[in-house]
Amino acid sequence: MDTPLQKFYDVLPTNLRKAVAGHNLLLDNATAEYLGEELDTYFKRVKAESSGNECLDLSMIERMVGTFKRLLQGFAALSEDEKTVVSLAIRYFIEEEDAQSDFSDPFGFDDDLAVLNAALLAIGRTDMIVVR
Using an 8 Å Cβ cutoff, are 27 and 84 in contact? Predict the structure, then answer.
């Protein structure tokens, strides 16, 4: 039986696997509080950058952040593998220079969206999938 972490890597687009794996810190003992703070800090930056930046789809990014926050609300109930998958997706999201530049490419957050949705599929939360 595949673990959520293996499912996550299996459903990730091939071109994102290496970039995401770089965010798998030894081991992922990140707390929901810590990840939430990091998420809030990055989202503040995104909102500040969105003024006058036509590359940013702020509505989609807000939906993504809302989904991450809902995942963090139930973080304690997740298995260790599921926590790893969620924290990997959040860490990837808050990294500005990942597979696509978040602020200078019109599709800069599409890779982040793919990672989020792969995480949701891997942990069985298809009800939370975010669409562009």
Answer: yes
Residue 16 belongs to domain spanning? 4-128
Give every CB contact of residue 4 below 8 A, 6+ residues apart in sequence.
Answer: 79, 81, 82, 84, 85, 122, 123, 124
Amino acid at position 10, single letter: D
Domains: count for the chain? 1
Query: φ and ψ at 97, to 5 degrees?
Result: -100, 80
The pTM of the full predicted model, rounded to 2 decimals, is: 0.86
Q: Taking the mean position of all CA atoms in its chain, how far away is CA 113?
A: 7
- Measured between alpha carbons, how far is 58 from 53 in angstroms, rounded to an integer? 10
User: How does pLDDT run across 20-74, given as a tens digit for each residue?
Assistant: 877 665 445 578 898 999 999 999 999 998 888 887 889 999 999 999 999 999 9
